[in-house]
Amino acid sequence: MISGISLLQKGGIIVYIILFLSFVATAIFIERLIYLTLKKKKFQEIRNSDNCLEKIKWNCENENVEEILENFKENEIKSLYRYTEIFPFTAEVSPMLGLLGTVVGLIKTFMVIESLGGKVDVSALSGGMWEALLTTAVGLTVAIFVVSLQEIVEWMIDGVKQELEELLKYCKKISSSRVCNENKET
User: Fold this and answer.
1) Whole-prediction pTM value?
2) Burial group, residue 7, by CB count within 10 angstroms (0-12, 13-18, 19+)
3) Distance (Å, whole) CA 170 – CA 55
4) pLDDT tens digits, residue range 79-127?
5) Residue 59 — φ and ψ, nearest 5°?
6) Is there a contact between 143 and 90 (Cβ–Cβ < 8 Å)?
7) Considering only CA atoms, which of 78, 89, 84, 94 is closest in space to residue 29?
8) What CA–CA distance (Å, rounded) separates 164 from 175?
């Protein structure tokens, strides 16, 4: 029986590159999972507080509520998508690296055939074939895995954006009622 480590070794350096990309994408997925969960909770807490405008006004020097809310929304949406470029990059590059590994494995196989003078020994060919097949399989597996991670993150971003919209509606409602109350007092 062949162990996982010996499979990786048979796949060559390209398998290690593909797996590295997978680990980076997984680490970013975990970071985004934590970040988006905390961000959604923060938006809910701000919406449930008495002074939501003061809590989001800190990054604006302007007193215009519409501009404050728009700037807040732009900054928050940018932060939601931070680092997510790794998902489509990894999903696109992994199968191509797998294909490259296939080509490298086939080149090695043909080099062995040439060195044997055309007298084919199946066991001598197997190293290149292993590399060819394993890199393709690993590349496709990582691509499928990372696309799944990307979809989960996109789903979570949509939920946080929805919570952000609810927060902004609430803040607009609060600000308009304050303006109405101030106008009644004067």
Assistant:
1) 0.81
2) middle
3) 13
4) 999 999 999 999 999 999 999 999 988 888 888 888 888 777 777 777 7
5) -100, 15
6) yes
7) 84
8) 16
